[in-house]
Write a structure and sequence with these properties.
Layout (H helix, E strand, L loop, with lengths): L20 E2 L5 E3 L1 H4 L6 H17 L2 E5 L5 H15 L3 H4 L11 E3 L3 E2 L2 E2 L3 E6 L4 E4 L9 E4 L10 H26 L8 H5 L5 E7 L11 E4 L5 E6 L6 E4 L6 E3 L7 E5 L1 H6 L9 E3 L7 E8 L6 E2 L17 E2 H13 L16
Parallel strand pairs: 1-14, 2-3
Antiparallel strand pairs: 3-15, 4-7, 5-6, 7-10, 8-9, 10-17, 11-16, 12-15, 12-17, 13-14, 13-16, 18-19
Bound molecules: 2-oxoglutaric acid (AKG) and fe (ii) ion.
Length: 353
């Protein structure tokens, strides 16, 4: 990534704190009541739903154990990610994302107009994925995105696809628990994700950064989708979450074979802010590289997102105007591509004042 480049330098108030607060409080939730089929007491599920509800309310984040995702599937994708990024830039650039085909390799992302110290590879869960061609509200044209197929490492596509299907299974289960925790039917959200999902996986590689005190691996942001399921590197931490209780950045300590879950902007809107999509960011390390793999669980592009009727009433009127998910999504992704002169699209733009 070359020499010191001012594009990476964060404003002083957004620079990392070099003696971070380690988060003890981010709840670790044991999913065995739903993954272990011998456990079928309603009371076990009931307390699980309660724990998920409190975590979503208090943190917007939680970690899961006994999640049912085979460790071997995770190890295979982690290995594939390492092998892919270890190649030369020339090789990786053969699979570079562009405005026409926005999946694949990229290393020039910006978050809030500051460049992120990382490289990444995006892979859609459905191939092809249908999305609006432009973010112009009046343009109904739809396009399809397909995934590139790197030659190396061997079986890359199969490995990634196998992992994605595990992530989808887990996400459907989590959405059921979240629905129950909001007092809704377990399958309330299912219809939005069954057909034409726009979910995708991102392989992230954060190389060591010589000016880690000035730059970030990924600038502060909320996730735009419904849910994110993140596999964080087991050794090199770096994810920081803005603690709702006091607005301090706290570091999420890596725990082997757990997934970090956070609710995204869509759940914030559906729940009419019962649950909030919390800001997070990634710190880089001066010596060690770090890898992570978020899975972004996203509905079909034509989904109109708005506060659910069951969760709003006269006393608690809708806090957001309806918006089309696909338009919002591609506008956000376009903003990450390059430096814009305007602020990137945020969910707050749809807030009813
Ligand atoms: O790398 C991480 O730990 C977090 C990544 C993330 O927040 C994102 O890609 O949206
Ligand atoms: Fe994120």
């Amino acid at each position: 990534m070359g020499e010191v480049d001012t594009a990476f330098i964060q404003d002083p108030e957004h620079r990392p704190n070099l003696s971070p607060i380690q988060a003890e409080g981010i709840p670790i939730i044991d999913l065995s009541p739903i993954t272990n089929h011998t456990v079928s007491y309603p009371s076990a599920i009931e307390s699980l739903v309660k724990d998920i509800g409190s975590a979503c309310k208090e943190w917007g984040f939680f970690q899961v154990t006994n999640h049912g995702v085979p460790l071997s599937v995770r190890q295979r994708i982690e290995e594939a990610s390492r092998l892919f990024f270890a190649q030369s830039l020339e090789e990786k650039s053969k699979y570079r994302r562009d405005e026409i085909s926005p999946t694949g390799y990229h290393d020039g992302d910006h978050t809030k107009n500051v460049r992120d110290w990382k490289e990444a590879f995006d892979f859609q869960a459905k191939d092809p994925t249908f999305l609006p061609l432009t973010f112009d509200e009046h343009d109904d044209r739809v396009t399809n995105w397909t995934n590139p197929s790197p030659q190396y490492p061997p079986h890359f596509r199969d490995i990634v696809q196998e992992y994605i299907s595990e992530m989808e299974k887990l996400s459907f289960k989590l959405m059921e628990l979240i629905a129950l925790s909001l007092g809704l039917e377990a399958k309330r959200f299912e219809e939005f994700f069954i057909k034409d999902t726009t979910s995708y996986i991102r392989l992230n590689h954060y190389p060591p950064c010589p000016y880690h005190h000035l730059a970030l691996g990924l600038g502060r942001h909320t996730d735009a989708g419904a849910l994110t399921v993140l596999a964080q590197d087991e050794v090199v931490g770096g994810l920081e979450v803005k603690r709702k209780a006091d607005q301090e950045w706290v570091r999420v300590k890596p725990t082997p074979n757990t997934y970090i879950i956070n609710v995204g902007d869509i759940i914030q809107v559906w729940s009419n802010e019962a649950y909030e999509s919390v800001e997070h960011r990634v710190i880089v390390n001066s010596e060690k590289e770090r890898f992570s793999i978020p899975f972004f669980f996203h509905p079909a592009h034509y989904t109109v997102v708005k506060p659910l009727e069951e969760l709003t009433n006269e006393k608690n009127p809708p806090k957001y105007r309806p918006y089309k998910w696909g338009k919002f999504n591609i506008r956000r992704r376009a903003g990450n591509f390059q430096k814009l002169n305007v602020e990137n699209i945020q969910i707050s733009h749809y807030k009813i004042a």
